[in-house]
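pasting for the record
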Amino acid sequence: MQTSPHFTDATRAILVDWLIQVHDMMQFQAETLYLAVHLLNRCLRQMKVTTANLQLLGMVCLFLAAKKEECLLPEVSGLCYLMDHTYTKHQLLRMERKVLCGLKFDLSHCPPLHFLILFASIAHCSTKMVWMARYLLELSLMDGQCVAFLPVHLAGAALCLARQVLQEPPTPEGEAAWCLVSSLHIGSESVLLRIMSILASAAATAQTRDTCATYLKYSSADTMHVSRHPGLKNPSSLLGTHT
């Protein structure tokens, strides 16, 4: 991903990991997180932002996403508290105006999660497979390489990889539905394999990274412990390659 010169993908990953934690604590809708990261990516490409204001930018992107997706909004003072009062309310609102002007007030985005839910519904996927695919898809938010791919491609790759991880017994109805999904235009095989490789590698190292908010979120009983699945430990076997 091309960002401001003084920001690396590692810096971006730390910020996104923090946003995931704040999003989870706020109990926002999943769409809010995807929109927030999308806005952040656009800001990093189009605006000049100093390192000192990077956390503020991330919080503003989450705040704007919440305004678009949520029914109840947090107080601005509460957002400042979550940033340890490093920034004032005035600074946050001023950054909000800067972001809106920089993006020309265009906050539209169709998140990959919507495509994932559509594909999973058509393919009659099990609840566990949907959770696994959602976990893999959320890992894509952390990786700067995934910014270049279309949402529909990310969703298709996450679902394909989830299917390979779980290896659930096929049913005639499920196989017929999966063939229908596979016939949809979700990108060339090379694109899907590239994304699957990125996601498989991310899942294999998720537990040991400092940026592990997504791993922890999907290790709970509510998400069927999918991030702890033993099938995620060896990305080479998932993709049919050899190290």
